[in-house]
Design goal:
Strand order of the largest sheet: 7-8-6-5-4-3-2-1-9-10-11
Number of domains: 1
Largest sheet: 11 strands, mixed
CATH class: Alpha Beta
CATH topology: TIM Barrel
Distance between the termini: 13 Å
Oligomer: single chain
CATH architecture: Alpha-Beta Barrel
């Protein structure tokens, strides 16, 4: 009897966003108004926590458009679940940052930026996005109490510009830089031919970054996390960065298996996104129990051990898992 341990979760609070990025995995946009209620989100978090989840990624759409964001973070913090947030930075305000800090948000607030200037960034995230994102980064740096970093998606549009973007992020006060290989999902599927890069091209970007910055580690070889802190950061931030190093290695790199739930209630095994059910129709506890199904385990093994579009080399089946225990 094999065991599989859920460690992380991902919640899409809303499908509404201020922009409509070409590579958006959830096809979010200003036109989509779908929200998960605060009460439902708190119930989901409590259920995931009972199943061993210790870290939950809060995304969207744009999570800062959800009025219950601070309440959700406070509920996570109270129940021993570490929050991380991904935002485009457009609607960050000092008052919201203070409320998030009081709710328990300390590190891993990631701002999405896909180029070192307006010209490159706009080919992916739309015009007039660059300046708004930089202003959000500036406000985070001025606030100074939450350790933050940048999410950067490598694709054809910005190939060769990861290092310049990381240096810009470092100058603006970022502590880490997530270099993510473009994966054609959601809206990204429609732009796959124009945006996809090869594994070799991605490795070039990673190698270039590694010459200037120290990697925290890798996440299934399609996300690398780099330490881009300035030597001039305060002692408080250095202490926070030390916590972040442990946070990344423990939760995002070594133990990535988790559950992903979008703003329509769709539940999937993450990161391979194997469909498990919809919590609008079935209780989440029952959906999670479906992880014991043999076909789910076979799909996960195929993904993990070499069949996921050549992201990593085949290593052969490590185990047969006819039965699963959720810790």
């Amino acid at each position: 009897m094999a065991e599989i341990s859920l460690v992380s979760g991902a919640l899409s609070l809303t499908g509404q966003c201020t922009i409509a990025c070409k590579h958006c995995y959830s096809e979010s946009s200003p036109k989509i108004k779908a929200f998960l209620s605060t009460d439902l989100l708190k119930s989901i978090i409590s259920t995931l926590q009972r199943h061993g989840v210790r870290q939950i990624f809060l995304g969207g759409g744009e999570p800062f458009l959800h009025k219950g964001l601070e309440e959700v973070v406070a509920h996570m913090f109270k129940n021993g679940v570490l929050p991380s947030i991904s935002t485009n930075g457009h609607v960050i305000a000092t008052k919201r940052l203070e409320l998030l800090y009081e709710a328990g948000m300390r590190y891993n607030l990631s701002i999405s930026l896909d180029g070192p200037n307006e010209e490159i960034n706009s080919t992916i995230r739309g015009t007039n996005s660059f300046a708004k994102t930089l202003f959000g980064m500036y406000q985070l740096s001025e606030f100074g109490k939450i350790l933050w970093g940048v999410n950067y998606v490598c694709c054809k549009n910005n190939f060769g510009h990861a290092l310049d973007t990381a240096k810009l992020a470092s100058r603006l006060g970022a502590s880490y830089f997530n270099c993510i290989k473009f994966t054609p999902s959601g809206r990204g599927e429609r732009f796959a031919k124009k945006m996809a890069i090869t594994d070799d091209e991605y490795r070039i970007e990673i190698s270039t970054l590694s010459e200037s910055f120290t990697p925290f580690g890798e996440y299934y070889q399609d996300i690398y996390v780099f330490d881009v802190r300035s030597d001039s950061v305060s002692s408080d931030n250095k202490s926070m960065a030390k916590c972040a190093r442990s946070y990344f290695s423990d939760f995002q790199i070594e133990n990535p298996l988790g559950v992903s739930i979008n703003h329509f209630g769709t539940v999937a095994l993450a990161p391979p996104n194997i469909y498990l059910g919809n919590l609008m129709d079935t209780p989440l506890d029952e959906i999670i129990s479906r992880l014991a199904a043999t076909d789910v385990l076979e799909k996960y093994d195929q993904w993990l051990y070499g069949y996921r579009d050549g992201i990593h080399p085949p290593r052969g089946p490590l185990r047969n898992m006819p039965e699963v225990i959720i810790k």
